[in-house]
Amino acid sequence: xxxxxxxxxxxxxxxxLDDPYPTYHALRDDDPIHECADGSYxxxxxxxxxxxxxxxxxxxxxxxxxxxxxxGDSALFxxxxxxxxxxxxxxxxxxxxLLAPAFTPRALEELRPRVEAFxxxxxxxxxxxxxxxxxxxFASPLPVQLIGDMLGVPESEREPLRAWxxxxxxxxxxxxxxxxxxxxxRAVEDFKAFLKDLIDHRRTHPAPSDQGEILSKLIDAEWDxxxxxxxxxxxxxxxxxxxxHETTTNLIGNGIDALFRFPxxxxxxxxxxxxxxxxxxEMLRYESSNQLGNRRAAETTTIGDKQVxxxxxxxxxxxxxxxxxxxxxxxxxxxxxxxxxxxxxFGNGIHTCAGAALxxxxxxxxxxxxxxxxPDLHADGxxxxxxxxxxxxxxxxxxxx
Length: 401
Prior knowledge:
By secondary structure, the protein is of the alpha+beta class. It has helices at 14-18, 21-30, 46-54, 64-71, 75-80, 91-99, 105-129, 135-139, 141-151, 161-170, 178-204, 215-220, 230-261, 263-271, 276-286, 318-321, 356-373; strands spanning 33-35, 41-43, 59-60, 131-133, 292-297, 301-303, 306-308, 313-317, 378-379, 384-385, 394-396, 398-400. The strands form 4 sheets. The protein has a 5-stranded mixed sheet with strand order 1-2-8-5-3, with helices on both faces. Helix 10 crosses helix 11, helix 10 (161-170) crosses helix 13 and helix 13 packs across helix 14 (263-271). It starts with 13 loop residues before the first helix and ends with a strand. The mean pLDDT is 93.
């Protein structure tokens, strides 16, 4: 591990990407509010990160200042400054209120049978083959299928969705190549054109209210007499796919990998399927799908024992907070019955992930059914990590039954 005094998020090595937790622990112990070379601050302590999440007056989410140098006037800039996640009130309040009907308990109960049927069909296919890749064949198709259902995307037209999502989210990494920038811009433009045709069709052919489709609701929804503009509608539909795709794929992949690495906990879950809910919470804590949040200081303020100037960019290391021993005893131990487990995998405060309950339901159904159906499931070769700083997951996870 490099000297933590020189730790730079924009210049990490492969060892960090494979296992960032020793670095997180060292930073939390010796420099929990680490000032990076570019003047940003990297936070690793649970209490400090939680305080920033909850103080939306002094720490803002709007990223127009931050994205302009990297994205210019591109399609990526338009997307990431229009979607829900990188905005503050009142825009954030209005859009979140319009999206809220998609994530009510009733809406999730309507979606659950679809998730169960899709997972059962996937497991049937995997049973016939005996060997498979748990990412390509299991973890990634589920959220794409579900968000495709929610947006009313025809089955035959869903193939490009995952690649679009990966390209758009890939542009949020601390370092962005020219090729990555161009791929992200193309993905936004292609996705917008696709959505325009879909929305035009849905305006004249509303979906039945009992099908779990929300695009019609988003088109017609009003908050304080305002509807989403066409551009807002485009980018928040893209946001729904992006937010639901990579994080859920990573939750399932990371969770199964943890069971492989901790066979006693795998056996424990097989013996007691009722542990699936706390098991998924521990998977979210132990290997957080999204490792980094961020804010910008709206004024000069103090975090912990350090003064942070107005305008400072702040990295909130969720992966480090979720292994803070002050809140999680023996934090590097994977314990599927851990309680309490107040992890920050979905953030906190007014920007807590709107789809958290949906992701939890998908993870519980997918992993629970997989473990029940294939009691002898095991790794079948070396997995391939995604090699990204912000989103932690796998590109491949070979397994057999």
